[in-house]
Amino acid sequence: MDAVVKSLLSRPPAAEKPAERPTREEAEAAVRVLLRWAGDDPDREGLKETPHRVVKAYEEFFRGYNEEAGEALARVFEEVEGYDDLVLVRDIPFVSHCEHHVVPFVGKAHIAYYPTGGVVGLSKLARLVDVYARRLQTQEAMTAQVATAIDQYLTPRGVAVLVEAEHMCMSMRGVMKQGSSTVTVQFSGVFRDDPNEQVHFYTLLRGGR
After folding, report:
1. Are 43 and 97 spatial neighbours (Cβ–Cβ below 8 Å)?
2. Which domains does the chain have, with CATH numbers?
3. What's the CA gap between 116 and 82, in Å, rounded?
4. How far apart are the first and last CA of the chain?
5. CA distance readout (Å), 44 to 28, 34, 52, 57
6. Three-state DSSP state, 39
7. DSSP for residue 19
8. What would the mean pLDDT of 21-25 be, rounded to a whole number?
9. pLDDT beyond 60 at 15
């Protein structure tokens, strides 16, 4: 179990990384190759700066590789007047990229947990979602990673994470079905063990709709 948690939370092991990270110049050259492969001329006016822009955009898209879940959840507020009931943050927007086709999937995350020793700042849960969304991902893995991080760093009595998203790899290519939505759910603790808590979670989600 510890190995699974470590695998979900950590960056890819060093052994799986290239021996040396390519330079910015090498990355831009790779973009030029892709532009040529697509059938265009990277030296024409409209594309001259595109390799530079793409590499800069990748730094933003995938900044999650340089961020840690523990930093996002580091500060816990213990002075909450004994509050130990459910905390729910709905409709956290995110943009991620499918690791199979490197195209976006866009959606919202909903996170609930039962605190034990205090609560984390609400914005920190949104930041946690971005830590994992800003990487090459699958929705299933991202859902599990968010839930596992909250379990590890906050040790709550239970965690519920629901993610709903539209995948551009399904709407822009392949079957080309626009508007379809994928939903993934991860429960732990009392949410996993007590069906009534799952009903409570879903009821609160629908309450604001």
Report:
1. no
2. 63-207 (3.30.1130.10)
3. 9
4. 37
5. 15, 15, 14, 20
6. coil
7. S
8. 93
9. no
Q: Which two tokens stand for residue 109?
A: 């995350």
Give the model's pLDDT for residue 10. Answer: 53
Task: For residue 66, give the 3-state DSSP assignment.
Answer: helix
Mean pLDDT of the chain: 89
Cite the active site residues.
Answer: 98-101, 139, 167, 169
Query: For residue 93, what are the contacts with CB-CB under 8 A and spacing of at least 6?
Result: 106, 107, 108
Q: Give the SS3 label for residue 81.
A: coil
Instruction: Report which secondary-structure segment, H or E, holds 158.
Output: strand 158-167
Cα→Cα distances 94→9, 56, 66, 97, Å: 18, 19, 17, 10
What is this structure's pTM? 0.85
* pLDDT class of 173 with cuts at 50, 70, 90: low
Tokens of 49: 């700066």
Q: State how far the alpha carbon of 136 is from the alpha carbons of 2, 26, 63, in Å.
A: 23, 20, 10
* Alpha carbon distance 15, 138 (integer Å): 21
* pLDDT at residue number 16: 54
H-only helix segments in the chain? 2-9, 24-38, 50-61, 69-72, 122-133, 139-154, 168-171, 190-193, 195-207
